[in-house]
Prior knowledge:
The protein is mostly helical. It has helices at residues 3-28, 31-47, 49-53, 58-75, 98-111, 115-126, 131-138, 142-168.
Amino acid sequence: MNRADEDEYRQFVMARLEPLRVTAYLLCRDWHTADDLVSITIGKLYRHWRRVSAMENVDAYVRGMLTNAWLDERRRPWRRERSTDDVPDRADAEFFEEVLADREHLLVLLSRLPPRQRAVIVLRFWCDLSVEETARALGISTGTVKSQAARGLESLRLVATVERAGTRNGGEA
Length: 173
């Protein structure tokens, strides 16, 4: 890679590093894994920068690379371990403020979706991609994006409604 291409690559990565990291976190719900996914993505991007930089929508392509990296990681056997919400050394039970609790609740709801639906929901509604852009990023048809988005949103609504009803009735959500 020549010096001009490398400078262009560095500027691109620096400008988009934090949004990529947040998108990765929304997909996987773990900051360490999100950092790994971003590292994988920008490493692959570096190797193919000359070709990718000539594309019409580089941001959409890179988000697709990130999403595919996450889906690949989900398939790996060592990623099948499940984390727990119980942190042993947590001293303060009121650690989360009300705003953080709402955000955490949304992340919990997102984590209950299957990986493909979660990817569609994050790309469509967090990254604000069109149906067509989401389809290209994930390598699926626009019809699949629409159906996965509809199913994902319906699942989120259903779980949120059930939890809200359980809370109002004095039960646990």
